[in-house]
Amino acid sequence: MTPARMLEGAGEWLRGSGPQSDIVISSRIRLARNLAGFPFVNSANRRQCDEILELTRKRITGISEKRLADRVIWVPVNDAPPIDRQLLVERHLISRPFASAKNGTPRGVAIGNDETFAVMVNEEDHLRLQVLRSGMQLGEAFDQINRIDNVLEEHLDYAYARRFGYLSACPTNVGTGIRVSVMVHLPALKLTGEIEKVKRAANQMHLAIRGMFGEGSEAQGDLFQVSNQTTLGKTEQEILGDFQHTVVPQIVAYEHQARQLLMQQRTAQLDDRIHRAWGTLTHARVLGTDEVLQLLSHVRLGVNLGRLDAVDIRTVNELFLLTQPAHLQKLTDEAMNPAARRVARAKMIRQRLGAR
Amino acid sequence: MKRKCDLCSRPATHHSVEIVNGQKIEKHLCAFHAEQEGLTVKAQHQPINELLTNFVKLNAGVDAEPDESGTAGGQAKELACDQCGITYAQFRESTLLGCPRCYTVFEKPLGNLLERAHEGATHHIGKVPARAGVGEQRQEQLTRLRRRLHDAVDAEDYELAVKLRDELTTLEDAAS
Predict the structure, then answer these.
(1) Nearest to A208 by CA among B18, B48, B35
(2) Is B44's pLDDT higher than 50?
(3) pLDDT surpassing 70 at residue A326
(4) CA–CA distances in Å: residue A108 to residues A13, A52, A64, A81, A355
(5) What is the pLDDT, as a whole number, of residue A243?
(6) How far is A176 from chain B (nearest CA, A)?
(7) What is the residue-wise DSSP string for A58-121?
(8) Which residue of B has its CA nearest to A153?
(9) Which end of chain B is more exposed for a tag (fewer CB within 10 A), N or C?
(10) What ipTM did this prediction achieve?
(11) Contact call for B43 and A204, based on CB within 8 A
């Protein structure tokens, strides 16, 4: 693995490009797949897990590169130092439980194409395929993952049954095994207190709303992940279509409304938030992760609304990632305790924002 | 200060506000009635994992749906997968199945649960793998071979293990 190369910037998904990227940060699709003939990971013994890992690694790395993705790297997760695993979690390439699996289940991840594509082996399911892209690109993300799934299927026997579809360890993923999610930046809805309404509406539509790092994580930096929960009895296109034609346009329109309202009726307060955040980020000497994410959120809002032009959106987006603990320690090339990290974080932010 | 459950005198621990046809409906329920609501009222949607866990917990000790006969309930308790050995009770604890075969063995109780978890859906209508037709036979064949191979290794019968390994490789390679 090449963490050094990864540190040159954020992955494709945080580039701040792509349609509607002022609100939709990224589009993600994952497919849960299992191999026929093996127990699921939770009830497989070590030898079986080793076999699954080895068989899958051999197949994935054996597929001629162009067919799957350009430049695929394989990371044996068990051998990777904790900080490298944490780095992959922060980059949304592996899940938290996958990084920390206490019982030492043999596992690995294949990463390809500018980090837009990853396959975790031996997570909750034998394979968890993911495509992650910047902005609202669910259609493109689905085409990419579907193509990868088809190629893998030529080389691996998936567990599949006519009635239940793709068989998964947890029945909540069975059927299509698809999880469609978009990460949206909703600072105005948060400021106007309307975010709770969005959450309720989402629940009514059988959608889950989580924080930036998925299950169990708080919505830091006003970043929310919205994802489907139903995987059975709908086609992939129907699930995707719900997001493309209903869910995302509605959330985007709602956030735009809230932004307009703030600009028209709370101009001074809005500008105060934005410039206070900018002032703190460019002058503070000690900064924690949570505080930074909140400040970056307000700065991002300011840039997107044209009320702050001292920084470009890409730099702001990258800071959401580079200020995370593992990235910070990799960048400064030293392991630090939290107190030292807060000082280093403030310094790195000042440097990146061109302040002294 | 403390609000009581809308349906009994226990303290309300679950609060919800729903807007139905422009009408605001507030609900304040105790843990017991909130769980009941979660199962009986479709409009009150819960995150799927919560739903599953609640469903599983609520049914602990009650082994099958009321529409299944008492005997079916008794059987469900003992129901175990003939391939991975996981019992239905164990699945309820972990909410994870043991192997692909579990879906066949637990088809009936699972069907009810899936319906609740997936907006009433009972069947997959999405993508079908290109090799789905021959797939199911192959899946069984692969499972059988792998089990025999493991048994052979456990019994230290390496001659047989090598033979089975070759058979398995041939079968797997036929996929690619």
Answers:
(1) B48
(2) no
(3) yes
(4) 22, 10, 19, 13, 41
(5) 96
(6) 6
(7) HHHHHS-HHHH-SS-EEEEGGGS-HHHHHHHHHTTSS-HHHHH-TT----EEEEETTTTEEEEE
(8) B129
(9) N
(10) 0.88
(11) yes
CA A136, A139, A144, A150 torsion-angle sign = positive
Under 8 Å between Cβ of A232 and A130:
no
A and B: number of Cβ contacts within 8 A: 163
Q: Which two tokens stand for residue B159?
A: 């001659």
Q: Helix, strand or coil for residue B100?
A: coil
Q: pTM to 2 decimals?
A: 0.80
Please name the residue that has the structure tokens 């000790």.
B61
Among A55, A56, A174, the strongest candidate for a mutation testing the B interface, having the largest count of B CBs within 10 A, is A174
Closest CA to A173 of A35, A34, A43, A26: A34
- CA-based max dimension of chain B: 76
In Å, how far are A184, B24, B25, B37 from B21, measured between CA atoms?
28, 8, 10, 20
Whole-angstrom distance, CA of residue A174 vs CA of residue A32: 8
> Tokens representing B32?
């017991």
Confidence bin at B39 (pLDDT 50/70/90): very low
DSSP string across B58-83 = HTTT--S-TTS-HHHHHHHHH-B-TT
The runs of H, that is alpha helices, within chain A are: 3-6, 46-62, 65-68, 82-90, 96-100, 138-155, 187-191, 195-204, 236-241, 248-265, 267-283, 289-304, 313-322, 325-332, 338-352
Min distance A218 CA to chain B CA atoms (Å) = 15
Is the CB of A234 inside 8 Å of chain B's CB atoms?
Answer: yes
Instruction: Tell me how close the Cα of B79 comes to any Cα of chain A, in angstroms.
Output: 17
CB contact under 8 A, A233 and B120: yes
Q: Which two tokens stand for residue A39?
A: 């127990």
- The angle subtended at Cα A175 by Cα A170 and Cα A177, nearest 5°, is 65
pLDDT tops 80 at residue A189: yes
Q: How confident is the model at residue A251 (pLDDT cuts 50, 70, 90)?
A: very high
Q: Is A193 left (phi over 0), alpha (psi -120 to 50) or beta?
A: left
Contact, A160 vs A6, CB < 8 A?
no
Rounded to 5 degrees, φ, ψ at A308 are -145, 120
Write the DSSP symbol of residue B47.
-
Residue range B67-86, pLDDT digits in tens = 343 444 444 457 899 999 99
pLDDT for the residue A328? 92
Q: Between these two residues, B55 and A340, which has the higher pLDDT value?
A: A340
Residue A273: DSSP 8-state: H
Which phi and psi angles does B130 have, rounded to 5°? -55, -30
Residue with the two structure tokens 């949206």: A184
Nearest-Cα residue of chain B relative to residue A40: B99
